[in-house]
Write a structure and sequence with these properties.
171 residues; 6% strand; mainly alpha; globular; single chain; two-stranded antiparallel ribbon
């Protein structure tokens, strides 16, 4: 059932620890997470790792500065999703503007100082499991019963020797 190989996770953590040491950063969970999320901004081009909202390049030195922070793409208060798939690195100022809204809700309207289409373009370098969260309708997709009931059903089937588990719509 675990979706991530423990050896791959150890390898990622070891790489993060090495980079943290090279950049005189404390080896802790937050800094390792910052590094992992930074890599996801563009898996292929280290020079193209930018804040998805403002487009500012995030070099490794700036990554650990107060200018950038770990943020929930879809608001934790509305989704209760604290997974790495729902987190990214963003400019502190853009995250403050976004507040407790989805990227679409925050950046697609006329009051937004940011260009929503450019945000979507920047997310194309991110992994697919993260990219959809920036799109219109992401909150509705997330709230569909599949996101809650199907994973819970698979989890229960894994640990219980049951043949049938019924799920219901959460709305």
């Amino acid at each position: 059932f675990p979706s991530h190989d423990k050896y791959a996770n150890k390898k990622e953590n070891d790489e993060a620890k090495k980079v943290l040491a090279e950049n005189n950063q404390v080896d802790n969970y937050e800094n390792r997470l910052r590094y992992k999320l930074w890599k996801e901004l563009d898996l292929k081009d280290i020079n193209n790792r930018k804040c998805p909202y403002i487009g500012k390049t995030i070099c490794i030195k700036k990554l650990f500065s107060p200018e950038f922070e770990i943020e929930h793409i879809l608001p934790f208060s509305k989704t209760l999703d604290d997974s790495i798939a729902n987190k990214t690195i963003a400019s502190k100022s853009a995250n403050a503007f976004k507040g407790n809204r989805s990227p679409f809700e925050a950046f697609s309207g006329p009051q937004s100082p940011y260009n929503y289409q450019e945000i979507l373009e920047r997310t194309k370098t991110m992994p697919r499991h993260k990219r959809w969260r920036f799109e219109a309708g992401a909150m509705e997709k997330f709230n569909d019963k599949w996101f809650y009931s199907k994973p819970a059903q698979r989890y229960a089937l894994y640990f219980k020797n049951c043949q049938t588990i019924f799920t219901t719509n959460l709305r």
